[in-house]
Design a protein that fits this description.
It contains 41 helices and 59 strands. The chain is an alpha+beta fold and 1516 residues long. Helix 37 packs across helix 39.
C-alpha cells in the first residue's frame, strides 16, 4: 500500500478539503475513509468512516466528483481509500492547526504571531513570586510562556527527570501553604485573559526519574532483567565496568599505566588492554549466545538410535548445512541456554544405516562447534564496538578541550556511565551475578534512558534485537529510567494509565505542550497520549524539537502526532554556509509571489516553524558566539514568518544558565538598579520588546512574503512584505559571531538597494561594549553582569540614523530604488526600515487592484478607485468579451506560430528560453501554470517581465491590430498594462499573471456560454475538449478555398484587405497544431469531417458546421471530395474515404441539429459544374441532396480517372500507376472497392520516400479492395438515405447504372440489404478452420476478429488486425453480430489499446514497428523515412471509436458487462484528461509512439483526437 506518511498536508481550521479521483482510479469503485469525526461526534483514533461522493454537475462523473471534509477541529487525522476488492490502496494524514485565543474577548492569536519565552520552572522560586518573574516576558513583548516540567523532579534536579508525573513540585510551595494543579490553572488562565499570554509546558513520556517511587512499585514499567532478559549480558558488562572503575579510582591499575587521572593516549591504550583482559575475557559473554554442544549431540544421538526417522540424506554435510541448521533462542537468555531444532538437524544428518550414527554425530558436533565459533566472533565484534565507545567517551569527558574534563576517576565520576540501576548494597561481582536468577531482585534492575547517535528513530533502542546497551552506544542519562510501554495498553496497564492521567492533567491546565525527547518516545504511545490530551483540550498547541535533519522524516512525526510547530534553533547557524540550511524555513512565500486561487491542489507543505535564538537545553552552543551577536540573531529570528522563541536569560545577556542549575530568575522592576531586578535597560530587553512587537505586527497585518539576502559574509538583509498593501519592512543586521574586541572585522559594508520610499527607521540598535567585572554567578539569582549593552533608537527618520551615511534614489534592475550607504555599521548592529511604495506606484497599484476585483474579491484590500479611469475600463471585461464570436476567441486565446506568421506576426519568443506555443492567452497560461503554483519567480518569463514591457506590448498590440471586438479587448489590456508599467518591477510578474489569469478565465466562461448545454453542463474534461473547437477553428484569408452560394443565408462576410470588397469568411478546421494549421496544409477534408461532429456539432456550432459541409460539397468532382485542396491549386482527388466521412457528417447534422434535414435543400455552389479537369468561374447552384445523389450515382456507376497534372510535379514520391484512381461498387456484395497497390486512398496514406531503403513510391498501407471502414460508412449512408426517402426528405429511391447502352436501377434498400447480407460472410474471421467461405486460410493468424479489408491485391493485408473495423462497428453497428463484435473488441483491447491511442497494427504482425521517426533514413524498408506511420504507432482518434463501440455493444451484452465497460472507458479517458491538463498545447496529440511515449513528429494537438474523445463523453 502506498503511504504518504512522509508528505505533510497541513491546513488551518475552516478550510474545505476535497478528495478527487486520480486518473488510475476513475471508473473504479473507490471509497474514501477517514477518522476525522462526523459533526457532533468525538474523535476516535481507530474509528474510520466512509465519505459520501458529491457530484457538482448532477451527473455521476468520475472526473469531477469529490468527497469533502469541513475542517473545524484541530489535530492529526488519517485517511485512506479502498478500490474494488482492495481494502486499503493508499492513505496519509491531514494535520489541522489549532486556534489559540487570548484576552477577555478570546481574541485569536495567529500561530505566526507567537513569541515564546521558555522558563526553567525550578528557577521561578515559590509560586507567590512567579508573577514578578514572569512579568519580564510580558513587558518585553512575549505572548507565550513555555514552562519546563512543573512536576516533582528527581534528586539530580534535571529539568526533565520527573519523579512523580502527577504531583506538583513541592519546591514551588511557600512555607505553610498548599497549592494544587488547580492553582496553576488559575494562574495560567489569568495570564491568558489579563496578560494576553498563552502558557505551554513540557511533557516527557520516554523516561522517569530514578527516584520515582511508583517505578519501584511497578518495575514492569521499565526494562528489567525479568521482562527483558536479553539485557543480561549488557548488565553484566555494566557491573564489570563499575567494579573496574572502582578499582581504577583506588589506584589498582596505576602500575599498568591506568591511573585515576587520565593524561594522555598511553593511558587510553592501557585502558583498552585492561578492558579486554580483565573484563571481556572474564565475562565470556559469548556463552549467552551459544549451544551446549555435548548436551545437543547426546540428544541428537538418542533421536538417531530410535531408528524411526528413516533414510533421508547422506551423512556428509553440504556447504549449506550451516544455513540450514536452525537454532532456538533461550527465552531466559542463560549461558549455553540456546538449543538446536532437532528436526533440521535430522534432515541434515540422517544415517544410511545404524552403523552410521557415530559418523552423523561427529558431523553434527563439528557443525555446532562452527556455529558456536561464529557466535563467539559476533560477540567479540560487540565487545570491540563497546571498547571503542568506552574509549571515545573517556577521551571526551576527561581529555578533550570540548568536554567537561571531569578529572580523576571516582565513584561520583566513574570511568563510564552506569546503564542500569543498582538499588542494592555493595557486593562482590560474583554475588551480583547471582541476582540475575532472583526474579524479585532482578526486576528492580532497570535500564537507564539516553539517546543513540545514528539509531533508527522509529525503533526503541531497548527492544529485543537491539544491542545498544551491550555495545555501549548509549549516551546515558543515569538519573532516568527508560519506560517500557509495549505495543498496547494491555502490555503495561499501570504505565499507560499513569501517563494518560499525567497527560490529562497537563492538557486541562495548559494551552499546549512541548514533546520532550519526541524522537525517543514510541510513536504509538505519543499518538494515544495526544489523543487523550485533545479530548480534554481540542485546540491543543503541540511543539517538538526533532532535529532529524530530514524533512520527510520529520513529517512522519508531525503527521502522526499532529505537531503544530517544529522548533528550529538559529544558534546553530554560526556561519553563512549553515544559514542556507535554515533560511528556507523562513517564509510562506517569496516577495512578489503569485496570487493563488481559492480552490487549488493540496501540495505537501513545510512544517510550521518556531524559530528560537536559543533552546533551554543548548546553553553551551551560545557560548561559541560572542555576546555582541545576541541582538542580530534575535533580529533574524524575529523576521521569520512563523513563531519565534527564546529562553529567559538570553535577552539579559546571561550565559550561565543550564538545566541542572537552580539559581532563581530576577524580578521585573521598571525602575530597578540592582542585579536582582531587571527592566528595559537590562541587556537587550528594549530591543527584544521592539522586535517582538514588530513580529506580532507583521503577522497580524499579513506580511507573509519574505526575501532573505546575504549582502556580505556577516551582513544579512531580511524583507517582510505585505502582498495587499505592498508595504515592506527590511531588517539589516550584522552578525558578530566572533568577538569584535578580539577579531578584526572590515569597515566596508556593501550598499543596500530598497525599492520604494523609506517611511521611517523602525529600530536602530548598536551593541556597545563596556568595562565590567568578569561574569560571575549568583547562587540565588540568575544574573551576572553582561560585558556589553545596547544603544537603541526607535521610530526615527532616516536623516537621524547614525548608521546610514546617505540614501539616494537610483535606477536598479529597470526600477527605481533607494541606495542605502552605511557607516559605523559595526558587528552586532541592527537597522530596520519601514518601506512604502512611492506615491505614483501606490496610486497605480491601488487602481489596478480596483479593476482586478471583478476577477477576485481578494483584491479589495489595498484597492483605490481613481477619478479618471480609462473609458475602456468602465465596464466589466465580461461585457466586452460577450461581443466576441468563437472565431474571435480563437484569435484571443490560441493561434500557433504558423498561423500568426500568415498574418505577418509570430508567437512571443522569451529570450534565453523558448517561444510561446500560442500567440493568444493560452500560450502564456500554459507557462504560468507551471510557474505560479511553485512561485518560480526565477523563470525566464518572469525575468523578461521584470526587464521590460515587451510582453505586455505584444499582448495588447497583437489584439489591438485585429480591430473590431478583438481590438476592444486589446484596448482593455493596453489600459490595464498602463498601470502595470508604473509599479516596481519585482511586482510585475505577479500582477501580469493576475491580469492574464482573469482575462483568460473570463474569456473561457464566455466561450462556454456560446456553446451547447452538453458543454455548459459537462465535466471539466468535456470543457477542456470543447475548447479544442476554439483552438482548431479560425478564419484566415489563405484558407478560403471555395465559396458558398450567394443565395445561402447566414454566411459571414468581411472586407478584403486586398480587393477592398466584401468576401465570405467562414471558419475552417485545422487538422492539427503546429504542423497542419496554415497555408496549403491546413484544410484536410478527411480530418475536417472526422472532427466535425465532435468539435462543431456537439459543441453547438451548427452554423459553422453547415457552412463547412456546403463548401466542401461545392468541391465535389468525379464523385469524390479532395483530401487536400492546396489553396485552390494542385487539388487532388485521390482519396476514396473522404466523401463518405462527408456524407456521415451530413447525416449527423440532420440527426443532431434541430430541423437539420433542411440542410439537404441548401444551395451548393459547384466548383466543378461539369466533368472537366479545371474549376471554372461559372456559377452553378444545386441543392445539397442533388450533390449527394451524384456521389451515390458515380460510385455505383464506377469512377476511373487519372489525376490532373499527374507526375513528379504533383507527387515526387508516387509511381506512375499510383496516379490512376479507381473506385466502384462490387455488384455481388454491395461493397465499395477501389485503389491499387501503388496508391493509398484511405487515412492510412503513408507513401514510401526512402531511396536508401528502396521503399520510395511504395505505399506502406495501400488498403486497396474494400476497406472495412468505407464499407461501414457506405452502409450507414444507405440506411440513412432509405429513412430520408421514406420520410419524404430525399427525392431519390435508387441509383442508375449505364452499362453497354442499357440502364439499370439499383434501389438504396437493395444496396443496403446486399451489404448487410455479405458483410460478416466476407469480413469476419471465424474460429472454424474449415470455414468454406474463407479463400485464404493460410494467412489467418488471429480468429474471432474482422478483416481490415476484403479483396486486397495482397491477400495478407486483408487479415491484418487494425483499428479500422471499429469505425464500421460504430457507424453501422447493425452489420455486426453482438457476440462476435464483443469478442473482436476484446482482442482489440488486448492487442491494440494503448495509454492514449490505438496501435495501428497488431504488435504480433511481422512488420509492426511502434516508433515513428520521419527523419530516420536507413536501409530498413519497413521503417525508413517514417514508412511505419500506420504500422504500429498509436493514433488517438480511433480510440474514440473503440470506446464508443465498447459502450454500444456492452449495453447489448447486459448490465454487468456494461458496468465493467464503464469502468474501462472512464479509466482510459482519465489518461486523456491528465494529458490535456499537463500539455502546454492544451490538446491531445495525433499519435504517440508505442506504449504512449511522446512522438516528436506528431501534432501536439490534433482536431480528430479531441473530437472523437469528446464523442465518447457525449455517449456516456
Amino acid at each position: 500500500m502506498e503511504r504518504l506518511d512522509h508528505a505533510l498536508f497541513r491546513l488551518e481550521q475552516g478550510f474545505e478539503l476535497q478528495f478527487r479521483l486520480g486518473p488510475t482510479l476513475q471508473g473504479k469503485s473507490v471509497k474514501v475513509y477517514t477518522n476525522y469525526p462526523a459533526k457532533g461526534l468525538k474523535f476516535e483514533r481507530l474509528k474510520f468512516r466512509p465519505l459520501d461522493w458529491l457530484y457538482p454537475n448532477g451527473r455521476e462523473d468520475d472526473r469531477d466528483k469529490y468527497c469533502k471534509l469541513d475542517l473545524m477541529v484541530a489535530g492529526s487525522y488519517q485517511y485512506y481509500f479502498s478500490c474494488g476488492d482492495k481494502e486499503k490502496v493508499s492513505g496519509g494524514y491531514i494535520v489541522v492547526d489549532p486556534v489559540l485565543r487570548v484576552g477577555a474577548n478570546n481574541d485569536i492569536l495567529p500561530l505566526d504571531c507567537i513569541s515564546s519565552q521558555t522558563y526553567l520552572a525550578k528557577c521561578l522560586g515559590t509560586l507567590d513570586k512567579w508573577l514578578d518573574r514572569l512579568r519580564v516576558a510580558k513587558e518585553t513583548g512575549y505572548n507565550m510562556i513555555h514552562f519546563t516540567p512543573l512536576q516533582k523532579l528527581g534528586v539530580s534536579g534535571f529539568c526533565y527527570s520527573i519523579a512523580d508525573q502527577l504531583k506538583l513540585n513541592p519546591d514551588f510551595l511557600p512555607e505553610g501553604q498548599h497549592y494544587t494543579w488547580g492553582d496553576i490553572g488559575v494562574l495560567v488562565e489569568m495570564l491568558r485573559k489579563d496578560w494576553n499570554m498563552v502558557c505551554i509546558t513540557d511533557v516527557v513520556y520516554n523516561h522517569t526519574a530514578v527516584g520515582s517511587e511508583w517505578i519501584h512499585l511497578h518495575p514492569e514499567c521499565g526494562y528489567n532483567l525479568v521482562n527483558s532478559p536479553y539485557l543480561k549480558p549488557a548488565w553484566l558488562l555494566d557491573r564489570a565496568l563499575w567494579h573496574l572503575s572502582c578499582e581504577v579510582a583506588e589506584g589498582k591499575y596505576t602500575e599498568r599505566g591506568l591511573p585515576a587521572l587520565f593524561q594522555d593516549e598511553w593511558n587510553m591504550n592501557a585502558l583498552r588492554g585492561i578492558l579486554w583482559q580483565q573484563v571481556f575475557s572474564r565475562l565470556k559473554l559469548w556463552e549467552f549466545l551459544q549451544v551446549n554442544v555435548d548436551e545437543a549431540v547426546e540428544q541428537f544421538r538418542q533421536l538417531l538410535k530410535t531408528g524411526s526417522l528413516g533414510v533421508r540424506s547422506t551423512s556428509t554435510s553440504s556447504p549449506e548445512c550451516k544455513k540450514q541448521l536452525k537454532m532456538a533462542q533461550d527465552p531466559w537468555h542463560r549461558r549455553f541456554g540456546n538449543t538446536v531444532d532437532m528436526n533440521s538437524a535430522v534432515d541434515m544428518f540422517t544415517p544410511h544405516s545404524p552403523s552410521d550414527v557415530q559418523e552423523c554425530c561427529v558431523g553434527f558436533r563439528k557443525r555446532l562447534e562452527e556455529l558456536n565459533l561464529e557466535l563467539f566472533k559476533a560477540m567479540n565484534q560487540h565487545a570491540e564496538k563497546a571498547t571503542n565507545c568506552i574509549l571515545v567517551n573517556v577521551v571526551y569527558e576527561r581529555l578533550s578541550d570540548q568536554g567537561p574534563k571531569l578529572g580523576p576517576v571516582t565513584r561520583k565520576n566513574p570511568l563510564c556511565s552506569r546503564y542500569f540501576t543498582f538499588p542494592f548494597e555493595d557486593i562482590t561481582f560474583d554475588e551480583e551475578m547471582q541476582l540475575m536468577e532472583q526474579s524479585e531482585k532482578a526486576c528492580q534492575i532497570l535500564a537507564h534512558d539516553g539517546f543513540v547517535k545514528g539509531n533508527d528513530l522509529l525503533r526503541t533502542f531497548a527492544e529485543p534485537g537491539s544491542e545498544v546497551y551491550l555495545r555501549r552506544e548509549l549516551v546515558c542519562q543515569d538519573d532516568t529510567i527508560k519506560l517500557r510501554y509495549g505495543e498496547k495498553p494491555e502490555d503495561c496497564p499501570y504505565l499507560w494509565a499513569h501517563m494518560k492521567t499525567y497527560t490529562e492533567i497537563t492538557a486541562k491546565v495548559f494551552s499546549g505542550i512541548c514533546l520532550v525527547n519526541c524522537l525517543s518516545t514510541p510513536l504509538h504511545v505519543a499518538e494515544v497520549m495526544l489523543a487523550a490530551a485533545r479530548a480534554v483540550r481540542p485546540d491543543l498547541y503541540v511543539t517538538a524539537d526533532l532535529l532529524t535533519g530530514s524533512q520527510p522524516f520529520d513529517n512522519v512525526f508531525v503527521n502522526r502526532l499532529g505537531i503544530t510547530s517544529l522548533v528550529q534553533e538559529a544558534v546553530g547557524a554560526t556561519d553563512s554556509q549553515e544559514e542556507k540550511v535554515w533560511l528556507p524555513w523562513f517564509s510562506r512565500e517569496p516577495v512578489g509571489a503569485f496570487v493563488q486561487p481559492s480552490l487549488q491542489p493540496l501540495i505537501p507543505a513545510v512544517t510550521h516553524t518556531m524559530f528560537v535564538d536559543i533552546c533551554p537545553n543548548n546553553h553551551s552552543a551560545i557560548q561559541k558566539c560572542s555576546v555582541y551577536d545576541f541582538l542580530p540573531r534575535s533580529t533574524l529570528v524575529s523576521m521569520t514568518c512563523g513563531a519565534t522563541g527564546s529562553t529567559r536569560g538570553y535577552d539579559e545577556l546571561l550565559l550561565h544558565q543550564g538545566l541542572r542549575e537552580a539559581p532563581q530568575y530576577s524580578c521585573w522592576n521598571s525602575e530597578a538598579q540592582t542585579s536582582e531586578q531587571v527592566n528595559l535597560q537590562t541587556g537587550i530587553l528594549a530591543g527584544k520588546l521592539a522586535l517582538n512587537m514588530l513580529h506580532k505586527e507583521l503577522a497580524y497585518e499579513g506580511f507573509t512574503q519574505v526575501y532573505v539576502e546575504q549582502l556580505d559574509e556577516d551582513v544579512v538583509a531580511v524583507t517582510r512584505h505585505c502582498p495587499s498593501s505592498h508595504q515592506s519592512v527590511v531588517a539589516v543586521l550584522r552578525r558578530a559571531i566572533k568577538n569584535p574586541e578580539t577579531h578584526r572585522y572590515t569597515n566596508d559594508v556593501p550598499p543596500l538597494f530598497i525599492p520604494g520610499h523609506i517611511k521611517e527607521v523602525v529600530l536602530e540598535a548598536l551593541a556597545i561594549g563596556r568595562s565590567t567585572n568578569s561574569n560571575k554567578k549568583d547562587d540565588v539569582n540568575i544574573n551576572g553582569l553582561p560585558e556589553c549593552t545596547v544603544e537603541i533608537k526607535e521610530r526615527i527618520q532616516l536623516k537621524d540614523s547614525k548608521v546610514v551615511k546617505k540614501a539616494v534614489m537610483v535606477s536598479k534592475h529597470n526600477s527605481v530604488a533607494q541606495e542605502i550607504v552605511f557607516e559605523k555599521f559595526t558587528p552586532g548592529s541592527v537597522i530596520i526600515f519601514r518601506v512604502t511604495l512611492d506615491p505614483r506606484s501606490q496610486h497605480q497599484l491601488g487602481a489596478l487592484r480596483h479593476h482586478l476585483i471583478q476577477f477576485s474579491l481578494q483584491y479589495q484590500t489595498g484597492c483605490l478607485a481613481e477619478q479618471s479611469t480609462p473609458p475602456i475600463l468602465n465596464k466589466p471585461l465580461k461585457i466586452i468579451m460577450s461581443k466576441l464570436t468563437l472565431a474571435d476567441m480563437n484569435v484571443l486565446l490560441y493561434r500557433c506560430d504558423a498561423e500568426e506568421r500568415e498574418d505577418g506576426g509570430g508567437c512571443y519568443n522569451i529570450p534565453s528560453w523558448l517561444p510561446l506555443n500560442y500567440g493568444g492567452l493560452q500560450g502564456l497560461m500554459s507557462v504560468m501554470a507551471e510557474i505560479c503554483p511553485k512561485n518560480n519567480l526565477g523563470h525566464p518569463l518572469c525575468d523578461n517581465l521584470r526587464q521590460g514591457d515587451w510582453m505586455m506590448d505584444y499582448v495588447s498590440n497583437r489584439l489591438f491590430a485585429k480591430g473590431g471586438a478583438v481590438g476592444e479587448v486589446g484596448h482593455w489590456f493596453q489600459a490595464m498594462f498602463g498601470y502595470l508599467k508604473h509599479i516596481p518591477r519585482y511586482l510585475v510578474p505577479c500582477y501580469f499573471d493576475s491580469i492574464i489569469q482573469g482575462a483568460y478565465t473570463t474569456a473561457v466562461e464566455a466561450v462556454f456560454k456560446r456553446m451547447s448545454s452538453f458543454v455548459q453542463n459537462g465535466s471539466s474534461l468535456v470543457k477542456l475538449l470543447a475548447l479544442g473547437s476554439v483552438q482548431m477553428c479560425s478564419v484566415g484569408h489563405s484558407w478560403t478555398l471555395s465559396t458558398n452560394s450567394p443565395h445561402l443565408k447566414d454566411v459571414p462576410y468581411h472586407l478584403s484587405e486586398i480587393t477592398n470588397q466584401e468576401e465570405q469568411c467562414f471558419v475552417s478546421l485545422a487538422a492539427g497544431l503546429p504542423h497542419f494549421c496554415a497555408g496549403a496544409f491546413r484544410c484536410w477534408s478527411r480530418d475536417t469531417f472526422i472532427s466535425l461532429r465532435g468539435l462543431l456539432l456537439l459543441t453547438g456550432r451548427h452554423l459553422e458546421a453547415r457552412n463547412i459541409i456546403l463548401v466542401f460539397a461545392g468541391t465535389l468532382h468525379h464523385g469524390l471530395i479532395p483530401n487536400l485542396l492546396g489553396q485552390g491549386c494542385s487539388v487532388r482527388y485521390n482519396c476514396r474515404d473522404t466523401v463518405w466521412w462527408w456524407l456521415q457528417c451530413i447525416q449527423e447534422y440532420c440527426t443532431l441539429v434541430q430541423d437539420g434535414v433542411s440542410i439537404l435543400k441548401c444551395p451548393v455552389q459547384r466548383m466543378y459544374p461539369t466533368n472537366v479537369s479545371q474549376p471554372t468561374g461559372a456559377s452553378l447552384d444545386q441543392p445539397l441532396y442533388e450533390v449527394i445523389q451524384e456521389v451515390m450515382q458515380r460510385h455505383m456507376q464506377g469512377i476511373l480517372f487519372r489525376e490532373t497534372n499527374a507526375g513528379p510535379q504533383l507527387d515526387s514520391n508516387m509511381t506512375d500507376e499510383g496516379f490512376n484512381v479507381e473506385v466502384g461498387v462490387d455488384q455481388t456484395t454491395g461493397f465499395i472497392y477501389g485503389g491499387n497497390r501503388f496508391n493509398c486512398g484511405t487515412w492510412m496514406d503513408k507513401m514510401g520516400e526512402s531511396e536508401k531503403a528502396h521503399n520510395k513510391g511504395i505505399p506502406a498501407t495501400p488498403r486497396d479492395g474494400s476497406a472495412v471502414e468505407i464499407v461501414g460508412l457506405c452502409k450507414s449512408t444507405l440506411c440513412w438515405i432509405v429513412k430520408l426517402y421514406n420520410n419524404g426528405h430525399f427525392p431519390y429511391a435508387a441509383v442508375n447504372i449505364h452499362r453497354e447502352g442499357q440502364t439499370y436501377s439499383v434501389s438504396y434498400l437493395e444496396w443496403d440489404l446486399k451489404i448487410q447480407e455479405n458483410f460478416e460472410k466476407k469480413f469476419y474471421i471465424s474460429h472454424d478452420p474449415q470455414d468454406p467461405a474463407e479463400k485464404h486460410p493460410k494467412f489467418i493468424h488471429k480468429r474471432g476478429i474482422y478483416k481490415d479489408s476484403f479483396g486486397a491485391s495482397s491477400p495478407w493485408c486483408d487479415y491484418q488486425l487494425r483499428t479500422n473495423f471499429l469505425i464500421a462497428m460504430m457507424v453501422a453497428p447493425e452489420l455486426f453480430t453482438v457476440e462476435k463484435a464483443w469478442e473482436a473488441l476484446g482482442v482489440a483491447e488486448k492487442k491494440l489499446l494503448g495509454p492514449l491511442g490505438m496501435k495501428t497494427l497488431d504488435p504480433d504482425d511481422m512488420v509492426y514497428c511502434g516508433v515513428y521517426d520521419n527523419s530516420l533514413d536507413n536501409d530498413n524498408f519497413n521503417q525508413a523515412k517514417g514508412f511505419n506511420y500506420h504500422q504500429g504507432p498509436e493514433w488517438l482518434w480511433p480510440t474514440g471509436y473503440f470506446l464508443r463501440a465498447k459502450l454500444y455493444f456492452a449495453r447489448k451484452m447486459g448490465e454487468e458487462t456494461y458496468d465493467k465497460t464503464i469502468v474501462l472507458v472512464k479509466n482510459v479517458l482519465s489518461h486523456h484528461a491528465v494529458h490535456m491538463e499537463r500539455s502546454p498545447w492544451k490538446g491531445l496529440p495525433g499519435l504517440t509512439n508505442e506504449n504512449g511515449l511522446h512522438c516528436s513528429f506528431s501534432c501536439e494537438s490534433q482536431a480528430s483526437s479531441m473530437a472523437t474523445i469528446l464523442e465518447v463523453l457525449y455517449d456516456l
